[in-house]
Write a structure and sequence with these properties.
The structure holds 2 protein chains of 2 kinds. Chain A has 16 helices and 14 strands. By secondary structure, chain A is an alpha/beta fold. Chain A has 2 domains: 181 residues, Periplasmic binding protein-like II (D-Maltodextrin-Binding Protein, domain 2); 145 residues, D-Maltodextrin-Binding Protein, domain 2 (3-Layer(aba) Sandwich), CATH 3.40.190.10. In chain A, strands 1, 2, 3, 4, 5, 6 and 13 form a 7-stranded mixed β-sheet that branches. By secondary structure, chain B is an alpha+beta fold. In chain B, the strands form 4 sheets. In chain B, strands 4-3-7-6-5 form a 5-stranded antiparallel β-sheet, sandwiched between helices. A 5-stranded mixed β-sheet of chain B has the order 9-11-12-14-13, with helices on one face. Classes of the chains: A alpha/beta, B alpha+beta.
C-alpha cells in the first residue's frame, strides 16, 4: 500500500515541470471550524511556506469515515469525536510522532505518542438574559435539574442540548456525564419533560439562544460559546460549578499519509510553543501547554474555575463509547428516559 | 637459565575470564528466558482480569446475549504501556456479539478455549498480538448458551518489561563480575604475599649462610621451601666435605714433608758422605711416596669436582680386566702375592665407560689388595653375570675388615682402622668416585672364611648412560 503511494508520489513529482519550486501539499481532514482555527493555519503557512496546506472542514462522522475510505489517505486527521479518533488509532491508522515536542507533551493528553489532544475546551451551560429575569440561572447540574422540574412550564421548548444520535461530541459528553452519576438520567428525563430541542452542533444552539428561540443551553462547547458571548451580550456563558467536562480535539498523522514529513511538521507545529501560543491568543481553543501565556489556556481556566475541571480521559476507556452494543444500549436508555414523561 | 613464562596473575585472570564468561553466557541465556516468562506472566494476568471483567458484563435479554463493554476492562487491557487493544464476545456458534477489530480467531483456538482458558500469540495487521480467550457460562431465562470472551493486546509492554528486567539482571551480573575481579586481584596480592616474603628472605641471605630456612609458608609452598632446605643442606655437606678433604689432604702431605725436612736437616748436620747418601735415598723414597699421594689426591679431586667430564664409550670389560691384571702380575710389588684371574666369559662383556678411569679403578683395587693383605695371600679378580648387569669383583683371603669399619672404607684417608701400612687411604675413595661416574654400584662384603670381597655392579650397557 505504502509502496504504491510512494510510486504514485514519485510519478506525480515527475510530471511536475519544476519539482524544486513546487510546495509539498498537505491534506488535513478536520472536524474544526475553519474560521475558528484560521489564525493557526495562517501562522503555519507563514512559518512553512514550502508546505501548501489543504484544510478540509467536515463533520466528525464524515472525517471518521474518510480515515478508512479516502484514497489517497489524508495526511493529518483532526477531530473532536474523541472515541472515534481513539478507535481509529487502536485500529492502527495512526503513525507515531517521534519528536522532542511529542515526547514532552503531557501524558494525559496523548496516547501511544500517536494521537495528541491539542486543545482544552470546557463544556459549559449558556443562558439568555431573559432567563435571569424569571429565575435564578443554574450554576450546577443539580440546579439545572431542579430548575427543569420546578419551572417546567416556563421552560417548555426553551431548553436545548446536543443530539446524541446526530453529534458524536454530544454523545461522548452524555456518556461521560452518565459515568459520573446515575442522576444524570433524571436530568435527561427532566429535559425530555421540558421538551428540549436537540441540536447537532454548538453553533446551532448559540444561534437559537441569540434569536430567542432558546433560553437555556446545556453541554455547549465552551470554546465557541465564549467567543459568541463576547459578540452577543444577550448570551451568558457559565462553567458549571460542580464539575465541568473538558473536551480535547485529537490529532494524528494518518498511517498512509502521502506526505508524512509535512504532516510531522504540521503536528509538531501544533504541539509546539508557536502553535499553542496562537491557539491561546487568537483562538478560543485553549492551549494545553502550561508554559504558554494567553487568554485561552488550560492553566488560566483552572485558575478561574478551580479544580472542578474533568477532562475526558484520553485513554483506552474511550473505546467503550464506540462499542456498538454499548452505544445501542445507551441510545435506547436515552430515548427511554427522554420520553419518560410521555 | 630462567625463562619468564607468563605471570600467575595473568593466568588466574584468564581462567577467571573464561569461567566467568562461560558461566555468564549460560546465566544470561537463562535470565533472558526467565525475564520473558516473568513479563508474559505479569501481562497475561492482566489479560485474564480484563476478560473476567468483560465476562461479568454479559447479560441475557430476550434470548440474546448483550454486553456493555466496561471501560475499565479496556483500560486494564491497554496497561500503562498503552497497548492497542482487542476484545470480542462470541456466541455459541462463534458469531460476534460485540468486537472492536476485524481480527479473526482461529476455529481451533475457539474449540480449545471451550475447554480451558487459553493464551495465544498471533499476528494481525503487521503487529504481534497476545490473545486470551475463555468461555463464560451465563444463564438467562430463555437460553443458557455459553459465550466466549476474547481479549488481546499488542506486545510492547511485555517487551519493555522483559527488556527492563533483563537489563537489570545484566547490570547486576556485570557489577558482580567487576566486584569479583577486584576482590580476586586483592586475593591474589594477599595469596602471593608468602612468596614475596620468601623471596626477600632469600635475597637477604649471606652467600655462605647455609642454615635451613626460617620462614612461615603456606601448604602450597612447603614443598618448595623444603626442597630449598634440602639444597642448602647438600651444599653445606658438600662444602664441609671439601673442607675436610682439604684439611685431610694438607695433613697427609704435611707428614711426609715433615719427614723429608727432618731427614734433610739431619743429613746437613753430618759430614759423612755415607750419611748423605742414606739421607738422599730416604728423601728420594719420601718424595716418591709424596708425589704418588699428590697424584692420587689430584685424580680424586678431578674425579669429584670435574664432574661429567669425559664421554662414556662401549668397551670390552673382560679384555680390559685381563690386560690390567697381566700388567700388575708382572710388577715387582705383586711378587709376594698370588694375583690371578678367575675364568672370564668367552664373549666380550660390553659396558659403557672411560678406559683410563676403569684402568685407574682396577689399579687402585689391586694396589689396595696388595697393600692390605699379608704376603702370600691369594687375590682373585673376575667377572660374573649378575641379573641384567655385570659384576666385576676382587677378593682376597687376607684378614678382612670388621663390619663396623667397612662402611667407612669408602671415605678418603680411611685405612680400615690400620695405621701400619704405607697407603694413603685414598684408594677406595677413588674407586667409589669412578664407580659413581659409571653408574656402577660398589659393594664391600666379607669373604668366607676370611678376607674381603669388593664388587662393582655395572648396569647393562644398553640401558646405561644418562647421555646415551
Amino acid at each position: 500500500m505504502r509502496d504504491r503511494l510512494c510510486r504514485l508520489l514519485l510519478a506525480s513529482l515527475l510530471w511536475l515541470p519544476l519539482p524544486g519550486l513546487a510546495a509539498t501539499p498537505l491534506v488535513v481532514e478536520a472536524a474544526l471550524d475553519r474560521e475558528v482555527v484560521a489564525p493557526l493555519l495562517e501562522a503555519f503557512a507563514q512559518a512553512h511556506p514550502d508546505i501548501e496546506l489543504i484544510f478540509r472542514d467536515r463533520s466528525t462522522l464524515e472525517v471518521d469515515a474518510l480515515i478508512e475510505s479516502a484514497d489517497p489517505a489524508p495526511d493529518v486527521v483532526l477531530s473532536s469525536a474523541m472515541p472515534w479518533q481513539m478507535d481509529r488509532v487502536n485500529q492502527g491508522y495512526a503513525r507515531r510522532l517521534d519528536t522532542p515536542r511529542a515526547r514532552e507533551w503531557p501524558a494525559w493528553a496523548k496516547w501511544r505518542d500517536e494521537v495528541f489532544g491539542f486543545t482544552f475546551e470546557p463544556i459549559v451551560m449558556a443562558y439568555r438574559l431573559d432567563l435571569s429575569r424569571h429565575m435564578l440561572p443554574p450554576a450546577t447540574h443539580a440546579d439545572l435539574h431542579t430548575l427543569l422540574t420546578t419551572e417546567r412550564d416556563t421552560l417548555r421548548g426553551k431548553v436545548t442540548t446536543y443530539s446524541p444520535s446526530r453529534s458524536g461530541v454530544g454523545y461522548t459528553l452524555f456518556q461521560q456525564d452518565a459515568r459520573y452519576t446515575p442522576r444524570f438520567w433524571d436530568l435527561v428525563a427532566a429535559m425530555g419533560d421540558a421538551e428540549a430541542s436537540l441540536e447537532a452542533n454548538t453553533r446551532a444552539m448559540l444561534q437559537g439562544l441569540s434569536e430567542g428561540r432558546y433560553w437555556l443551553g446545556y453541554n455547549l462547547l465552551g470554546s465557541y460559546a465564549m467567543v459568541w458571548a463576547q459578540q452577543h451580550p444577550e448570551v451568558i456563558v457559565r462553567v458549571p460549578q460542580d464539575y465541568a467536562l473538558v473536551m480535547m480535539r485529537m490529532a494524528f498523522i494518518h498511517r498512509d499519509a502521502p506526505h508524512p514529513r509535512a504532516a510531522e511538521t504540521f503536528l509538531d507545529f501544533l504541539l509546539g510553543r508557536e502553535g499553542q501560543r496562537v491557539l491561546a491568543g487568537q483562538t478560543p481553543l485553549f492551549s494545553v501547554r502550561p508554559d504558554v501565556v494567553g487568554p485561552y489556556t488550560a492553566q488560566r481556566l483552572r485558575d478561574q474555575v478551580g479544580e472542578r475541571l474533568y477532562p475526558i480521559p484520553l485513554n483506552a476507556s474511550l473505546l467503550a463509547f464506540v462499542d456498538p452494543q454499548r452505544r445501542a444500549a445507551f441510545m435506547a436508555r436515552w430515548r427511554r428516559e427522554f420520553r419518560r414523561g410521555d | 637459565m630462567i625463562a619468564v613464562d607468563g605471570s600467575l596473575k595473568a593466568r588466574l585472570a584468564v581462567w577467571l575470564l573464561v569461567t566467568v564468561s562461560g558461566l555468564g553466557a549460560l546465566l544470561m541465556l537463562e535470565a533472558y528466558f526467565t525475564t520473558r516468562r516473568a513479563a508474559e506472566r505479569a501481562y497475561d494476568s492482566q489479560l485474564e482480569a480484563a476478560a473476567l471483567t468483560i465476562a461479568e458484563a454479559v447479560q441475557w435479554q430476550e434470548g440474546r446475549p448483550l454486553v456493555e463493554v466496561p471501560a475499565a476492562a479496556l483500560q486494564i487491557l491497554a496497561t500503562r504501556h498503552q497497548e492497542r487493544v482487542f476484545y470480542a464476545v462470541l456466541d455459541d456458534a462463534g458469531r460476534r456479539i460485540s468486537a472492536n477489530l476485524d481480527l479473526t480467531i482461529p476455529a481451533e483456538a475457539r474449540a480449545a478455549a471451550a475447554h480451558a482458558p487459553l493464551w495465544r500469540d498471533l499476528r494481525h495487521a503487521g503487529s504481534g498480538w497476545r490473545l486470551h480467550g475463555r468461555e463464560h457460562d451465563s444463564a438467562g431465562w430463555e437460553t443458557q448458551d455459553p459465550v466466549q470472551v476474547w481479549v488481546g493486546h499488542t506486545l510492547s509492554g511485555r517487551q519493555a518489561l522483559a527488556g527492563e528486567l533483563f537489563q537489570r539482571t545484566v547490570i547486576r551480573f556485570l557489577a558482580m563480575v567487576l566486584l569479583a575481579g577486584l576482590l580476586m586481584l586483592l586475593a591474589m596480592r594477599v595469596a602471593l604475599t608468602p612468596m614475596r616474603r620468601l623471596r626477600h628472605l632469600l635475597r637477604r641471605r649471606e652467600a655462605d649462610d647455609m642454615r635451613p630456612l626460617d620462614a612461615r609458608v603456606p601448604e602450597e609452598l612447603r614443598e618448595m621451601a623444603e626442597t630449598l632446605d634440602t639444597l642448602f643442606a647438600r651444599q653445606r655437606e658438600s662444602r664441609d666435605a671439601l673442607l675436610r678433604f682439604t684439611a685431610d689432604a694438607s695433613h697427609q702431605l704435611k707428614t711426609p714433608l715433615a719427614g723429608l725436612q727432618s731427614t734433610s736437616e739431619l743429613a746437613l748436620k753430618s759430614h759423612q758422605p755415607d750419611e748423605w747418601r742414606r739421607a738422599l735415598e730416604a728423601v728420594h723414597a719420601g718424595t716418591q711416596r709424596t708425589s704418588r699421594l699428590a697424584g692420587q689426591l689430584l685424580s680424586l679431586a678431578r674425579l669429584r669436582h670435574v664432574g661429567d667430564g669425559g664421554a662414556l664409550e662401549p668397551l670390552d670389560l673382560a679384555a680390559l680386566l685381563r690386560d690390567t691384571v697381566l700388567d700388575w702380575a708382572g710388577r715387582e710389588v705383586a711378587a709376594d702375592h698370588d694375583l690371578g684371574l678367575a675364568e672370564l666369559p668367552a664373549a666380550p662383556v660390553t659396558v659403557r665407560g672411560e678406559p683410563w678411569a676403569l684402568r685407574e679403578l682396577l689399579g687402585n683395587l689391586i694396589d689396595n689388595a696388595l697393600r692390605y693383605t699379608p704376603p702370600g695371600s691369594e687375590i682373585t679378580l673376575g667377572l660374573a653375570m649378575a641379573g641384567d648387569g655385570v659384576e666385576l669383583y676382587i677378593e682376597d683371603d687376607g684378614p678382612g675388615v670388621p663390619p663396623e669399619v667397612r662402611e667407612r672404607l669408602l671415605r678418603p684417608f680411611e685405612r680400615g682402622g690400620r695405621q701400619d701400612t704405607r697407603g694413603s687411604g685414598l684408594g677406595l675413595a677413588i674407586v667409589d668416585s669412578i664407580a659413581r661416574r659409571h653408574d656402577a654400584h660398589l659393594r664391600v662384603s666379607a669373604r668366607q672364611p676370611h678376607g674381603l670381597r669388593v664388587a662393582l655392579h655395572f648396569p647393562p650397557a644398553g640401558k646405561e648412560g644418562k647421555d646415551a
